[in-house]
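Incident review: delayed structure delivery

Summary: a single-chain prediction request sat in the queue longer than the usual turnaround. Root cause was a stuck worker, restarted by the on-call engineer. No data loss occurred. The affected request and its eventual output are reproduced below so the record is complete for anyone auditing the incident later.

Affected input:
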Amino acid sequence: MSHASPDPVVLNDPKVVNGWAMFDWANSAYALVITTAIFPGYFNGVTDKAFSFLGIEMTNTSLFSYSISFSYLIIAAMLPLLSGIADYGGKKLTFMKRFTYLGSISCMLLFFFTGMNNLWIGLGGFILAVIGFAGGQVFYNSYLPIIASEDQLDKVSAKGFSYGYIGSVILLIVNLLMISFPQFFGLDLLVNNFPKVFGESPTALAARFSFVMVGAWWMGFAQIPFNRLPKQAQVGKVDNLLSKGYAELKKVFRKVKKETHTKRFLIAFFCYSAGVQTAIFLASTFATDVLGFSTNELIIVVLILQIVAIGGAYLFAALSGKFGNKQTLILILIIWSLVCLAGYLVQDKTTFYAVAGGVGLVMGGVQSLSRSTYAKFIPEGSDDTASYFSFYDVLEKSAIVIGTFVFGFIDQILGGMRNSMLALVVFFVVGILILSTVKIGRRVNV
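Output delivered after worker restart:
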């Protein structure tokens, strides 16, 4: 059975590149509002500080950490299969859509999470939203080397992150206005007239409506990349897509094992990603639990973080062009280490605002530059980009599992998150040491 080849992709086509970047605009609203700005504080506010869950005594902050670990354990197990199918079966865009709809609908369902009496809705909706976000991301990432030439990878990757920061900040500002002035949006009337449906707090209702708005924003703006990104043709006859998916990943793994510097980069990436992603996921929980930030104060912190991150993504892309990817990444990781150390030491809200600025500076840079650096190791013209990026994403998701579990475990055992923050420094130091031995490029492994 033969299949028509897809139309050839024109590299660096502005319409396609901008359409690709709009996926970051769409799904970064989830990353900002659900994982960072509003949901963690809301979760802590409507759940008990300490309780028994599945027969285990734990705090709400450690449960939140463990829920992230569990989510990424599932996605790490699924992605090798799905991305291999995407490459072999020509369904990259199809899976990107399915995960997007799963994530966006799950965000909307968080509206019905109101406290310990329906904790399962909060945990279930959050876990499924994480899976939807992470699943769509691997297919989004795999388009990068398809739509951009090697000399434009850093710039295009940074554009995606900057679009994400701008879009998510716009929505977060609207959410901040709703939470700060619920009466202007008529939320007090809903609470007063229908307390059994909407609860007794206009502020809490505003937070719940923000979850619905994230899902609608995510699903709606994702239609732009869905209409602009190139579609794939099926590669040959496919008898068993399940076995093909794992076969594709094994093929990439065998290639990576023989490529010394690709292998070293991925090990370093695994180590520092455990620190980066855990800090991003749990910084807001740290701020609310340890420093007593209110939801409004936390949103302001996140806005500072996001605005600084827009410039940070472009700053480090420019530095990588001048000094090289490796030196720039090492600089970023040194700053990350100092940020986590500052988090351990911080005692007041004012200082934490400065710490948030430091996180913003390096947050976009490390993610954008890591993605474009890895793309430079993928053989030119490869048909296995989704499988290569699946390998990359499985490592990142596994790192999140390890990082968030260690964070939650230290929090649960030692009774505080300061020591958890200090432990993240170890991940960065190990990553720096390994990265210092890496040579970057497609021909350095030969």
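Verification: The mean pLDDT is 83.
Action items: add queue-age alerting; document worker restart procedure.
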